[in-house]
Amino acid sequence: MTPVQTPSIFAPVSTPAFAIRELSFFVLGITAVIFVIVAGFAIYTLIRFGRRPANPDLEPAQVYGSKQIELAWTVVPFLIVVVLFLVTARYVWGIERRAQPADALEITVVGNQWWWEIRYPKLGIVTANEIHVPVADAARPTPTFFTIQSVDVAHSFWIPQLAGKMDAIPNKTNRVWIEPRQVGTYVGQCAEYCGLQHALMLLVVVVHPKDEFQAWVAAQQTPPVDQATVTAGRQLFSSLACINCHTVRGTGGNGVFGPDLTHLMSRSTLGAGAARNTPENLRAWVKDPGAFKTGALMPAMKLDDTQLDQLVAYLVTLR
Ligand code: CUA
């Protein structure tokens, strides 16, 4: 499990995020100058004229109708807005025009209430909430191109250190790409209010060295090994409603409404950040998902203690 991190757009590690930081500094610089001028005048006025006794005979200078002043406070802000617009447009264009190279990794991210489905269409991998990608070295950059979709409401895919926000909208496909230059774990979060558990749509991106990424791919592509000791739990899993919503590759379970569980235990959290993925939490989750995440679509299956033990014993073998 990775330590808790505060994701920041000012600590970028990926190409689009570097550009976004540059643009942020530019915009913050201009707005800081405006702030200092306006606040400076306000403070000066407060101090200079604040404590004078009211004198009805003393009228301030009337500048109404002054063309110079009106032109100044119209034209200058207009020019500032034009500059901000053009510079921003140039950055957006620069990021979006990048064509997908042939060797780019392709990932489809599907927003759900309230979790993320992560698919690697060319690699045959399906997982949830945690994204694994290779690092991009200067010699052979391998960017990752995301296809962003949603099955229900609008969500927003955002990993601040890697790229800008991208909306996940039903019936529309959006694109975003990253090119992380540094190995590590980066976190993100759904950035568009999407219902009760909007706050529990954690995203974790693990950037691996290239060979480590290949090992992860190979492990994910291998179906879990059937273990004779957990036969009872496996039979329970396939006889209950679990398989209507969940897939475990190599078994009869091929539901698609909930997260793919083929390698459930390779993920660090349950319920997209609702709890750490430990056997104890997993048992409590299966017993009553609503206790962790009110409104989660997974129902409490009303299992007795023996059934829970058997089921969890099976689930923890899905490594
Ligand atoms: Cu999904 Cu907010």
Task: Describe the protein.
The protein is α+β, with helices and mostly antiparallel strands and 319 residues long. The chain is 36% helix and 18% strand. Strand 6 (155-157) and strand 7 (166-168) form a beta hairpin.
Describe how the helices and strands are arranged.
Layout: H1 15-49, H2 67-96, E1 105-112, E2 115-120, E3 125-128, E4 130-134, E5 144-150, E6 155-157, E7 166-168, E8 174-178, E9 184-189, E10 202-208, H3 210-221, H4 231-239, H5 242-245, E11 269-270, E12 275-276, H6 279-287, H7 289-292, H8 305-315
Parallel strand pairs: 1-5, 4-10
Antiparallel strand pairs: 1-2, 2-3, 5-8, 6-7, 9-10, 11-12
Helix pairs in contact: 1-2, 4-8, 6-8
Bound molecules: dinuclear copper ion.
Q: What would you call the shape?
A: elongated
**Beta-strand percentage range:** 15-25%
Structural class: alpha+beta
Q: What ligand molecules are bound, each kind once? A: dinuclear copper ion
Strand order of the largest sheet: 3-2-1-5-8
In this structure, how is the largest beta sheet organized? Answer: 5 strands, mixed
Query: Residue share in helices?
Result: 25-40%
Please give the number of β-strands.
12
Low-confidence stretches: none
**String of helices and strands:** HHEEEEEEEEEEHHHEEHHH
Distance between the termini: 15 Å
Number of helices: 8
Rg (CA only) = 27 Å
Global mean pLDDT: 92
